[in-house]
Histidine phosphatase family protein
Amino acid sequence: MSKTLYLMRHGETLFNQLHLIQGWSDSPLTKRGQAQARIAGEYFLKQGIRFDAAYSSTQERASDTLERVVPGLSYQRLKGLKEWNFGRFEAQPEFLNPKPPYGDFFKYAGGESQSEVEERLFETLSELMAVCSERSKVLAVSHGGALTCFTRATGNQLSRGLKNCCILQFHYADGQFTLENVINHDFNPLEEDN
């Protein structure tokens, strides 16, 4: 028997719009980010996907996204789902990022190493999937850097960065995560004012 994890990135934020590095610092969802979350929620509804459990990073941009994807669903906020801590690079212009892989680069700036983020995410998601009943469908909302690290830790590689509200669908069985699908949604700018 298996379980399914829908691992999702938060909607667009003010820092995303301004091209600022956003790790443990936070910024609010933009109108576009709110609309992206609603579009993701519509996807789950159209697919008939109902969640048995839901989790979010403790950061506001992630919990605000989850609340728009599945309004009224109770969920748990977990520190283990937080974004990468970029240390002194927090809230700095994105052009200061080195080329990946980052390795220990951010650890020397007072943040986390790539391996620390991989381990944190893998441990957190493994623990929550292990306690779910068979055939469970689980939603977890996290962050771009953290999701990329987790995907790498599962032995999968993403060909490009994760768009806001991108959904990674993983099959979970016998302690192993297998990436089954990467779901990106087209954003209709006309919905921004709704």
